[in-house]
Amino acid sequence: MLPYQTLQEAEFSLGRNLTFAETLWFKYSASKSDYFLYCHNTIFLFVFYTILPLPFVFIELLRSKNIDRFKIQPKIKNSFSDMMDCYKKVLVAFVCAVGPLQIFSFPVIQMIGIRTSLPLPSGWEVFWQLLAYVLLEDYSNYWLHRLLHNKWGYENIHRVHHEYTAPIGFAAPYAHWAEIIVLGLASFIGPVIVPGHMLTFWLWMILRQMEAIETHSGYDFPWSPLKFIPFYGGAVYHDYHHFVGGKSQSNFASVFTYCDTIYGTNKGYRYQREVFEKTREKLKQK
Ligand SMILES: [Zn+2]
Ligand SMILES: [Zn+2]
């Protein structure tokens, strides 16, 4: 909730006119509690999880030889009911794990100082904070994911996420509830270390979800703008991790490739990529 009653009060307090974005934020958030604003995150997670995989669902349903050129594992076909089954199971996990985690983590948000106040952060501030968040999350996710591949962790927790040896967009958050919580907490590391504005926090959570859905999409489109991001792993990179399955000791990182390169956990991938590509080419020709 903003400490101003009117736009004039806010402008007087800042000593300048509000920008267009700040005026919109004022009108939307001035009378809403910080807790209510934070809970928007749960709604965004649900809405974006539902909407973002839909283009991949349509692509999968419209499969043809042309589309198969971009399918990472073209032998695999998913029906509408297969994909909806995954969606429904994830929704249950959302209600049981993500919802309570989001709601009860509010004291942490308050403690670390995620602010809802004016002025809004500049574009550069948002950019640098998001960069810090993604690097911190990627690094911590690498080690947590690698840890989940030990015998106990895999058999009792991570096995669920690996039920999809050829992932689909809806399967990005398909995992044991304990994994959802542990990896969800990794998303908080960045905001804890570099706290920013609530809008930045919302944007971070949405971008993280977009990235996870893209890497689990099962499709590799050569025109994807994400391919221009240095060291970006992408769908083929993570698909390989699922393709190898439980025995996979390769490609643990969630976003970039450099952790796997530094710690030597993508040597197998780099060698097998050639074999993998040749197999794909042969399947496409059939
Ligand atoms: Zn794994
Ligand atoms: Zn995965």
TrEMBL record:
Keyword Membrane among UniProt keywords: yes
Keyword Zinc among UniProt keywords: no
Domain Fatty acid hydroxylase intervals: 131-265
Keywords: Membrane, Transmembrane, Transmembrane helix
A single cellular component GO annotation: membrane
Domain of life: Eukaryota
InterPro entries: Fatty_acid_hydroxylase, Sterol_Desaturase_Related
TM region positions: 35-62, 90-114, 180-207
Compartment(s) where it occurs, according to its Swiss-Prot or TrEMBL record: Membrane
PANTHER family per UniProt: STEROL DESATURASE
Family indicated by similarity: Belongs to the sterol desaturase family.
Descriptive protein name: Fatty acid hydroxylase domain-containing protein
Protein's organism: Penstemon smallii
Lineage: Eukaryota, Viridiplantae, Streptophyta, Embryophyta, Tracheophyta
